[in-house]
Design goal:
- By secondary structure, the protein is an alpha+beta fold.
- Helix content is 41%, strand content 21%.
- It contains seven helices and eleven strands.
- The strands form two sheets. It has a seven-stranded mixed beta sheet with strand order 3-9-10-1-2-7-6. A four-stranded antiparallel beta sheet has the order 5-4-8-11, with no helix packed on it.
- A hairpin with a 2-residue loop joins β9 and β10.
- The protein is elongated, with a radius of gyration of 30 Å.
- The termini are far apart.
- The C terminus is likely disordered.
Length: 315
């Protein structure tokens, strides 16, 4: 932080020496992902407070950088401003004012962030241009579906009560069972193995839901763990389905993302409801009835079915 402030001081001092003012701009990431929140910090020296924006708008001014001449240098409105925070600080007795823009980029592209023009007394000062490259998250293939960990209790036997003849029959039965199992595996398992590894995102998600509910964690004093996994399944599905990361987002940020995706209003509200219900249980130690837990399962399945693309059957 000290190093940044020193660099900022010398940068602003240099602009003052040559007789013109410029708003110094820094970005928290120059390679953000689509849907990720990142920050643009704008700093100026020697004003009463941070200057007023000449034109107030809901997006941070930017232009496309592209080999396609039809869109190169055209205005981009995909860097949405979520929130602005003003602050000030001193460096060696010099007052600096800073405005931090919290933003989201909604398209994959390379951009020149032009920034706002600001009123500084009777003059207008411009923002320093910075460059960013926005990209989508990589599609995740071949996700592993974890099966239930089942435990089987063996039976206790009193060896004194077993005769050699009985033991021989047991061993013979085990050998026959092993031979039958190997035969079934060779005949059916290998045949179906390839189809199991090519499940669609919808099929994987539905399988994960069934595995989670079969474990019945809420009946074993693990209701918070149940809803942690429940929320992860929904967020992971949305990430894979729409190519925008929901895994590292808060519920508030997830709700903002949903407004920009191709989801009908009913499904979007249902997703928001499920995320909120999961948060109540995970973070507020709330209680929830078994009927409600089962109802949330049905709602999650409905969301997956309603938002999955239709697959046309071969004629």
């Amino acid at each position: 932080m000290i190093r940044f402030k020193l660099l900022l001081f010398f940068s602003l001092a240099a602009t003052a020496v040559i007789g013109q003012k410029e708003v110094v701009v820094e970005v928290s990431s120059d390679t953000p992902r689509v849907g990720d929140v990142f920050k643009i910090s704008c700093t100026v020296q020697g004003s009463i407070d941070f200057p007023e924006e000449k034109i107030n708008q809901g997006f941070y001014p930017a232009k496309y950088l592209s080999v396609d001449t039809s869109i190169h240098e055209t205005l981009c409105k995909d860097v949405e401003v979520l929130e602005t925070i003003d602050s000030s600080f001193l460096i060696d007795g010099v007052q600096f004012y800073q405005r931090e823009y919290e933003v989201i980029a909604w398209d994959s592209c390379e951009l020149s962030l032009l920034g706002f023009d600001y009123r500084f007394g009777d003059t207008v000062i411009k923002s320093q241009q910075v460059y960013i490259k926005v990209s989508f998250y990589d599609q995740k293939d071949n996700l592993e579906i974890y099966d239930l960990k089942e435990t089987f209790s063996g039976w206790e036997s009193d060896s004194k009560k077993f005769q050699l003849k009985t033991a021989a029959y047991v061993i013979l039965a085990l050998v026959l069972l092993m031979i039958i199992s190997i035969f079934i595996w060779l005949k059916y398992f290998k045949k179906n193995q390839s189809s199991d590894t090519n499940l669609s995102v919808e099929e994987k998600t539905l399988a994960e839901i069934q595995v989670l509910y079969a474990a019945e964690l809420w009946r074993n004093d693990s209701i918070q763990e149940h809803f942690v996994q429940f929320s992860f399944i929904l967020r992971d599905y949305l990430t894979l389905r729409f190519g925008v990361s929901f895994l590292d987002k808060t519920t508030h940020q997830s709700n903002l993302l949903l407004k920009h995706l191709d989801i009908n209003t009913e499904s979007r509200r249902q997703i928001e409801k499920i995320l909120l219900a999961s948060d109540y249980v995970k973070f507020a130690d709330s209680t929830i009835a078994d009927q409600q837990i089962e109802s949330l399962k049905l709602e999650l399945i409905k969301i997956v079915l309603d938002t999955s693309p239709l697959i046309e059957e071969d004629q």
